[in-house]
Amino acid sequence: MPRISGAEELKAYLGRVVGADARLEAAAATLGEIAAASVKMSDLIGLGRLYGHLGDSRGSTNSDGDVQKELDVLADEMFVEALRRAPVYGVVSEELKEALLLNPNAPIVVSMDPLDGSSNIDANVSIGTIFSLLPTLPEARSLEAHFLQKGRAQIAAGFVIYGPQTSMVFAIGASPVEIFTLDRNDGQFYHAATVGPIPKESSEYAVNSSNYRHWEPSIRAFIEDCARGLDGPMKRNYNMRWVASLVAEAYRILLRGGIFLYPGDQRPGYSDGRLRLLYEGAPVAFLIERAGGVATDGLSPLLDIEPTAIHQRAPLVFGSADPVRLVARYRSDPKVSAERAPLFGGRGLMRD
Ligand SMILES: O=P(O)(O)OC[C@H]1O[C@](O)(COP(=O)(O)O)[C@@H](O)[C@@H]1O
Ligand SMILES: [Mg+2]
Ligand SMILES: [Mg+2]
Hints:
This is Fructose-1,6-bisphosphatase class 1. By secondary structure, this protein is α+β, with helices and mostly antiparallel strands.
């Protein structure tokens, strides 16, 4: 049997799932352009220092005041160019202060983090590109207004991860989360897996625990209880993971479960954590829910947050249903965080 080309395979898949819906057709065409651009990104990232100092700072800052790396800016340029070729009305990018108008009359808008995990560029660790596709709003009075929709309104979302494998992980319409992996021999994406359901329980948590002293008591209590392992109320030994690339944590959790936390903390500017709602939290939450997991701001579903600004941050907790719901209990029930040891005694918190 001759091997079908990955582009055809991806297009055939998209063709099957979009049917006659014009917005989904636009979303499918856009995913095709993102996939094509990500092949170039993957090549460039694979060259690393042979290409140049991709991880060096440029002396400029992005929308949030973060110092931009060479690759942040290159990625932004490459993906904006790709989206110009797609039926996309406008784009919000982490690297652009304002929303950018692309194709008037197009039916969708895209929010993106062109390069996620910037601190890992020169460490040869997985990094990625995150994207969120929303329908345009007939009633919107400004370009920005199209982007200020709940994550639940997304018609497609996903990310590309540039790691040992380059893979595009996405869901479109009501379809499951799919993984297409790049075959570097021919530069084509091939279907690799359908994701889910994410296991309800897990023994892995991902958090930047160097922020422990800045967290509020309920988050400290939850992480302390995980770390107490079999001796604590969780009644299981945990492993901790922190890659510092959201795409890598999301990929791992989609495939084998676990919990990720980037809560708000007391550092100046971190009351809503670090991650951006439109192009980090919302697309990851879309995939996680679609795969049977749970994603919250620590308490409530992240996909129900009504954004008020394109670059706003939101606390993010996602992954296996049981531990994510348990974090909400720690946060909402003062007894759980303040008196947890006597309250739960020898009982396992997960099995109440
Ligand atoms: O350095 P910290 O505080 O642990 O934050 C790591 C988090 O920041 C991010 O790198 C933010 O994304 P950017 O690299 O796009 O700014 C996430 O990928 C990651 O989860
Ligand atoms: Mg990011
Ligand atoms: Mg980024």
